[in-house]
Write a structure and sequence with these properties.
CATH architecture of one domain in chain B: Orthogonal Bundle
Number of helices of chain A: 18
Number of strands of chain A: 0
Subcellular location (chain A): Cell membrane
Strand content of chain A: under 5%
Membrane topology (chain A): Multi-pass membrane protein
Protein name (chain A): Polysulfide reductase
CATH topology of chain A: Formate dehydrogenase/DMSO reductase fold
Pfam families (chain A): NrfD (PF03916)
CATH class of one domain in chain B: Mainly Alpha
CATH superfamily of chain A: Formate dehydrogenase/DMSO reductase domain
Distance between the termini of chain B: 106 Å
InterPro entries (chain A): NrfD-like
Helix content of chain A: over 70%
Shape of chain A: globular
Oligomer: heterodimer
Strand content of chain B: 15-25%
Amino acid sequence: MNDLPEQKETNLSFEKIKKDILRPMQNHKGLELWIAFLLTVLSVCAWAYYVQLRDGLGVTGMRDYVSWGLYIANFVFFVAVSLVGMLISSILGLLRIDWITPISRIAEIIAVAFVAVAGLVIVMDMGRPDRVINVMIHGRFQSPILWDVTVITTYLTISLLLLILPMIPDLAICKKELKKTSPILKKVYNILSFGYINTPSQHKHLHKMIRTLMILIVPVGLAIHTVTSWLFASTLRNGWDTTILGPYFVAGAFVAGAAALIVGMYFFRVNYKLQDYITDLHFDKMGKLMVAVCLVYLYFNLNEFLVPGYKMKTGDDIHLKELFTGHWAIMFWSSQLLGNIIPIILLVTKKFRKPLPIMIISLFILAGAWVKRYVIVIPTLLHPHLPIQNVPENFVNYSPSAIEISVTVFSFALALLIITVLAKIFPVVPICETADNKGIKYKIEA
Amino acid sequence: MKNTIKIIASLFLLFVFTASVAKGQDWNVPASAKNKQNPYEASTKNISSGKKIYNINCKSCHGDAGMGNMLPLQPVAPSDLGSQAFLIQGDGEIYYKINKGQGAMPTFEKTLSDEDKWMVITYLRSFDKNKKESKQVAEVVNPEVSDVNLVLDINNEEKKINANLSGVTEKGDRVALQGIELSIKVKRSFGYLDISGDDAYTNEKGNVTIQFPADLPGDREGHVNLLVKVTDDAYYGEVSVDRISSIGLPTDPVNPLDERAMWGTRANAPIWIILSYVGGVISIWGVIFLVLFQLIQLPKMAKNKE
């Protein structure tokens, strides 16, 4: 504090961090175009949802056999990706792994967007969404559905808090620096900065709250995916009736979430010109993390398919043969190979952990993760224990209708829009934490 | 124009139908199938159960065995299965035909069990005049009667049901009807349970007496719905009598929805699961609200600087 030249130097660095991170929020050409594009897609697909609302779920490909179709596969996928918030900012954060600092906010933004849309996907899967509140009023404690609704709401709340709380110092900077922004945003910054001026007591108080939430989100994050797996595992259906489905889903969620984060990191790094903050080192570390979670997931896959495949119980045999060599073989094997095994092999080498290659590999992992959910949900439903006699052809062959695909596009576009808007109004890389990490001292003026 | 279409359509239908029925004529039974033997003996019990199966599955087309009252289908009517012309073939041949079907004759390969099929053959064989050793179904040697009456007498202590079948002759006398099979049934949740036993044919006094099973449950007072009828309507039309009697085992039915269980309603959820849910929600949301409360205090801390 008393050494003047050092103070000057650090001040300059903090100014640079501030400038670099706040710049994309003030002027970013092309962003309007991207938002306009998303809004167009959303409005077109909203019409598809309107048709579904008007004419009922008959417009989808879902019938008596496959009553959980594309929508539930999407739901499981969205829930899976949202788990990245817990993985990065909570588990790694609690372990005091400091390279996650610049990417933790992107992880939280992805978590908030995806879990919010996951909740919405369930509502969009309902023929009568006006009755959604009945789940709360009349829900049975024995049903995983009540637990799922509860745990998703809770996870969304904690994720939002874990997005906002660590951002309070940055928002205090935004309040002061972003003079030309809209009055509404100024008000948002004013409220959400909670009068923070980085006094030692405020700093201590804030970090205590954040730590509490980081611990709290671990059981809730595990619960959100375990309960989602119980929606399946608490039935007797072949392929779902397994005890490892809970940890299997959690492991799969880490893979999907990490992949989504790498893709997000890449796009923010390139578009927001954040090469100095989201560095090659971060991609390298994320690549190693990806190999670790993929290996865990591979281990669970081995258990999930090898053990029943060895026994080939009646009922299981039809399901497994359909997956291994039958109708679903292409989807099943491509998700296993492109979404898990090949990425592990590639990411072991350092050159594939460079930003562009790892981003492309992550896109494959994400696509594989989505296909995997589709293959978990639908094939099981096609083989009921008590088949219907003289069942109509369209009951035993599910394919999503154009309406369903449009509504699916809607949910993906909505998640992207939420991420875009959050990244536009909030700094995507923590300013103060980055400075803290680099040992740069700073002051936040009131 | 319209008529032409109609004529063509009817000709077409006629052709299809004729072809399918005509095909039924030339049975092609493989030699291996012909050699098959009926593994069941021609006991009264087997003949009787074969008759029941026959009445349900075969009678609607073939009519009563030996009576020639089959459905008059064109161009070929179904055979009288009790006629000597039919019974000249071996058991294996009949068995094959029941299994495969042809033309208008449906296949029973999957709809009847092997035992059922052999029972039907046993029953049909009882009409065979060439088979001396086979027992004939109890011959009806009753006079022509009218006003057939079925009377039930139930002994509650010994749980015995006695049914008496009688009719009035032309002379005006009420006589017992002998050798008629009766069905004694108890109503259960899904349909009737047959408790007739092996030998429910009326004796020379027109009586059938059966022992009601001691372990058959009734309602709270032991009430059961009994139905006694002449098995074959062909003799005297439909003759039956039903009665509610308290010879069942009194039982207190338990509604599985009344207990606390995983399958119960929300009000009947197991205590531990309610506690886990409510406890989880309260503790997690308690911490969330605690954090929110601490958050509100943050602005105040700006004032008391150092």
